[in-house]
Amino acid sequence: MRLPALLLVFAFASFAAAAPARAEDGDVLIQAGHEGRPASCAPHHVTACNLGTGAQGAQEREWTVIVADEATSALRAAGYTVLRRPADYDGRDTARAAVFIHFDGAQPCASGASLGFPETTSRSFVDTWEQRYRAWFPYRFVGENFTVNEHHYYGFRKVDAPEKMLIEFGEMTCPAQFAWMAPRLHEMGTRLAAFLKEQVPR
Ligand SMILES: [Zn+2]
């Protein structure tokens, strides 16, 4: 009898359509800040469609993609499952660590590098990154959770992970920082990958 089989297929298709489009498990989640905007805002009902900063013809959302892609390929080459995410996406993921990549914009040179994280992130995860990055980045480190947006970043709610951290690698609107960072975006990615390999051993 053909009808029940057809109904079963139909029921399954309906269930699949109702489920979140994406919700995956991985070792590490890496989000490139602002990637995919502005196009992704309307379909995801994002009313505060923050496009990120920019300077000298370069957009933050181009730089974040370079760093995120570099870190992702280094981790995948080492056998890690990486959930590589843009600014807006469906579903809620699970990972062992999640990092969200940004660059800051401010009154020129009023800012620098910084970090944002929820209370659940371990002190050692934050300290290790902060010490390493401060030893390499020759400009200001402006602090931890120094804005509400950093402390309560929307991306933190889209993943279950014991370690979550938003990284502002530096201030694009400061010409000296821009000049130092521009040729080092790939190295930022490899440094981030090395940190994550150590923090989340396979
Ligand atoms: Zn940003």
Mean pLDDT level = 91
Tally of contiguous helical segments: 6
Tell me the series of helices and strands, N- to C-terminal: HEEEHEEEEHEHEEHH
Strand percentage, roughly? 15-25%
> What are the distinct ligands in this entry?
zinc ion
The profile of the biggest β sheet is:
6 strands, mixed
How would you explain this protein's 3D organization?
The protein is α/β, with parallel strands linked by helices and 202 residues long. It has a single domain (22-199), classed as 3-Layer(aba) Sandwich (Aminopeptidase), CATH 3.40.630. 37% of the residues lie in helices and 21% in strands. It is built from six helices and ten strands. The strands form three sheets. Strands 4-1-6-10-7-8 form a six-stranded mixed sheet. Helix 3 (123-136) links the parallel strand 7 and strand 8. The longest helix is centred in the middle third of the chain and has 18 residues, at 60-77. It is globular. The N and C termini lie far apart (50 Å). The model is unreliable at 5-20 (pLDDT under 50). It binds zinc ion.
Task: Give the gist of this structure.
The protein is an alpha/beta fold and 202 residues long. Helices cover 37% and strands 21% of the residues.
What descriptive keywords fit this protein?
alpha/beta; six-stranded mixed beta sheet; binds zinc ion; 6 helices; 202 residues; 10 strands; single chain; two-stranded antiparallel ribbon; Aminopeptidase
